[in-house]
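Annex B.
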Amino acid sequence: MDNIQAMIKVDEQLAAKLQAEEQEKYSIEEMLRMLVEMIAKRKRFFAAQRAADQRSKPPTKAQIRNRMCTYLRNMDSKKAKADTEQESNTKRAGDELEQEKAKKQKIDDDQEEAKLKKHMEIVKDDKVTIDAIQLATKPPMIVEYKIVREGIIRHYQ
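Topoisomerase I: predicted structure tokens.
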């Protein structure tokens, strides 16, 4: 019995010695950091365990209804988004067609201008006179209105 008690004392002394060495090994800041890390790990572990428990339970009717409403809302917004994208694509295509038409028209105008420049003569005289003859003249017409009992009478002069 004395032998067993002696072994227990030796074990206690060894444990005390190891604990003292470990306390000397880590500073207070390091011990606090390790404690915070250990608490964070425990929180994550228990949160994961609660999430797993919730996933294993079947959803209630209210949860199913909420999920369905959310799903339908998202589908409506996706449909509206797809419609607007399709409209914008057709608008872009229309704009691109208009731009291509404008480019073709400009090219045609440039070609026509080049043809006209070929046929145009450059006049080098400083004195260029243009005789303009009036093709037709019409005198101004004066119209008088007189009101008579029977009606309006026009007089031309």
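The first helix runs from residue 2 to 25. Residues 30 and 36 are 10 Å apart (CA to CA). Further annotation is deferred to the next reporting cycle.
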